[in-house]
Amino acid sequence: MMDRHEARERRHVRIRKHLEGTTERPRLAVFRSAKHIYAQVVDDRTGRTLVHASSCEKELRELRAAATKKRGVAEAVGKLVAQRCVAQGVKQVAFDRGGFRYHGRVAALAKGAREGGLSF
User: pTM for the whole thing?
Assistant: First the structure.
């Protein structure tokens, strides 16, 4: 019997079979832990991370301290990663939910990224 972490890893592998980040449309990969959320934009062809953002950053520290909802912090991370992408000239990404359900904090991050100017 597999635990939930192994099940997520299997889902992630299944998703990644159909997703690839290219130079024109890099992959926005999301990882969610119990406390934090991380997002990075990856060009899989060159193997480089173009942009990253997480809820651990200093810029979001005040928001994290004031917010009682982790969903609001996730949306702010989405806006931050989108802002950094637009500065690099990236407007379109392929969304990789990392085996997590498109629900709650993952959906909030996606919403923030869309509001920040990314399309996927």
Answer: 0.92
